[in-house]
Amino acid sequence: MTWSLARRATVWLLVLPMLVSACGKSIGETVDDATITAKVKTVLLNDPQVGGMKIDVDTTLGVVTMSGTVKSPAEEQRAVLLARQVTGVRDVKSTLQVNP
Fold first, then answer.
1. Global pTM?
2. Euclidean distance between CA atoms 64 and 61, whole angstroms
3. Where are the domains of the chain?
4. Cα-Cα-Cα-Cα dihedral of 46, 38, 51, 75, to 10°?
5. For the domain 26-98, what is the CATH code?
6. Torsion of CA 89, 49, 56, 26, to 10 degrees
7. Backbone angles phi, psi at 58, to 5 degrees
8. pLDDT tens, 73-96?
């Protein structure tokens, strides 16, 4: 049986919302969280005081969680401050480890 492109697209449009809602997030929330994560990561990478390559960022319902390593408590504070300034961020949680 050959499925046309339109039929496959229709199936995905029907199944995708069920898969996403099964994860506890709507499509809009998933997109918003991905956008926030990208913006936070970009801000961290562009800041010369923060080693953004060693910081992982995850966002769930606007709450940003940062993990990884930083060189000092000041770098951790700067990373948290920068993340809080990103539009859409509701809260920031840091599990960053200081490793000089």
1. 0.70
2. 8
3. 26-98
4. 100
5. 3.30.1340.30
6. 20
7. -135, 140
8. 999 999 999 999 999 999 999 999
